[in-house]
Design a protein that fits this description.
Helix content of chain B: 55-70%
Distance between the termini of chain A: 38 Å
Number of strands of chain A: 5
Radius of gyration of chain A: 26 Å
CATH superfamily of chain B: Cytochrome Bc1 Complex, Chain C
Number of helices of chain A: 8
Helix content of chain A: 40-55%
Largest interface: A-B, 47 and 47 residues
Distance between the termini of chain B: 40 Å
Oligomer: heterodimer
Strand content of chain A: 5-15%
CATH class of chain B: Mainly Alpha
Order of helices and strands of chain B: HHEHHHHHHHEHHHHHHH
Number of strands of chain B: 2
Radius of gyration of chain B: 24 Å
Strand order of the largest sheet of chain B: 1-2
Chain lengths: 260, 411
Amino acid sequence: MRRFIASGAIALSALAIGAVAIAAETEVHPPHKHWHFQGPFGTYDRAAAQRGFQVYKEVCSACHSLSLLAYRNLMDLGLSENAVKAIAADVQIPDLSDDGQPADRPGRPSDRFKKPFANELAAAAANGGKAPPDLSVIIKAREDGPNYVHALLTGYVPFDKLTPAQIKETGVTKDDNYNTFFPGHRIAMPPPLADDKVTYVDGTKATLDQEASDVVEFLAWASEPHLEDRNRTGVRVILFLLAMAGLMYAVKRQVWADKP
Amino acid sequence: MASSHGAPPVFNNRVIAWIDHRLPIFSYLEKEYHTFPTPRNFNYFWNFGAIATVMLVLMIATGIVLATNYTPHVTMAFDSVERIMRDVPQGWLMRYLHMTGASFFFIAVYIHIFRGLYYGSYKAPRELLWILGVIILLLMMATAFMGYVLPWGQMSFWGATVITSLFSAIPVVGDSITTWLWGGFAIDNPTLNRFYALHYLLPFVIVAVVALHVVALHVHGSNNPLGIDVKGPQDTVPFHPYYTMKDGFGVILFLIVYCCFVFFAPDYLGDAANYIPANPLVTPTHIVPEWYFLPFYAILRAIPDKLGGVLAMFGSIGVLFVLPWLDTSRVRSCSFRPIYKWFVGLLVIDLFVLGWCGANPPEGFFVPLSRVATIYYFFHFLVLLPVLGKIERPLPLPPSIADAVLKKKAG
């Protein structure tokens, strides 16, 4: 009987090892970067997130909405109330006039970020048939989100740099965009970022990698604005529970002391 | 207030005495949660009943708070959950407690079930206690499934599509039943509305069945790691303070692990695709349920026939209902079953293998693996368990709990 069990266990583990080897197939994993907001003590790098907002505003927002955010949220990134008011006032928000007619008005901090297209159909029509995804929770909506989005933004390969094998495998043509990290590699979005695509107001050198990292920092904040509060609360809760556990253990031992 | 074994309690507080004379809730609490004689030899596996109860209360409390801010409409559900996360004060905390709480409720209950399996808690005279437990598990699964639909993300929608479509496998009336479940010809607003209503209702049904589970438990008292009956007062301790304090300690240890996930990795146990709003026109590449359904999902897909798969999946829970009669051994605890205890371990490994199959697309290597694991699952309950009880020779049982405890202390 023992031997039967042992051989069964060996067979199962052999199967398991074999499957791991199969599972580790050719999928391209994004390279791992360290992010300021990682770990139980993580916080957002305000300067990077503000630069990221500049990248979003000047580049991404031409096609991608950020519909779950309001302009007032930008104050959490360290922008002053007046700066936020000015950013909002720069935008014309479609609304109704007092007599019920459609009319645009300057934005207010309480307004949600204005969408680049009037509706989903218009967005699709202007972008080759498929609306660009909303970016409000994009970092949480992708596996390994921060690394994936960063790798995607920096992972374009120009057509003339592709190997014949890559062209054959994906069927990519001169008019397509090839991205190392996009599933299937053919991506509708043309390379959005490049060196010096923006001119940072704080003087940081705008390399492609810098822009991608900054916009990921901004989008990570947009996806999870309460992360810092969550981490802070978490550390306190865990410390409290550890103290409680010690206390309860002492009480439990005391109570059971008279039982041999 | 004073009391001793057997005698009804005397309450010194006149208000309590007045109430208790008319409605004996205090006598009941005294009898069932204070003096209640409980085997003195529990190990930490016996904490998980209390832990599961705490999780149930926590889920209901956070759930009611979330319900006050949630909008069950296909165009608003996703955004209303995000509004809870962003704009409702401490909304993110309530939502993460609830979302991660579902996983940890299942962890607690699965360990609780394992404890019952290993120590033979399902055997006479506790068969109905066990069956009520299986009913709780089924109710939990239904509740968790419908709760996962509410945020109306991609996995909500497509998970609901896969699971509700299972009913279409029923011959003749299957399609009509599916239409009736959906409230239309596709998953849409009526589906979301009824799932929301049921997701709010079922937890209270669970509370009611848990109450029956506790009533049944208190008839013959708890089983214990030795699996032998209590022979007298020397074998027991009063429930309070001995086990209230031990359970309290265990609950806090469990909460520490739970809170690590809530605060530092709230999305770790979920699927990223559920942060994409539901889109009936785009099917995700891999539709996977939450981790606690993966073994059953693997059994469903292991059978190459739709109806067969559905029957096997429901059968994998159904077999638990007759477990007390499939086990032919006269010994409860695996501590005295030298062969069967290894097979319980193998069953746990089998469930992990099934879970792993369920998490991966049903291709290549995972197809035969999930079939072997499925066959083994049923082989365990339908063949091994009845046969082993007849041929296995159990180790000698100790004469009493007290005897075993004192011998162990003496070394």
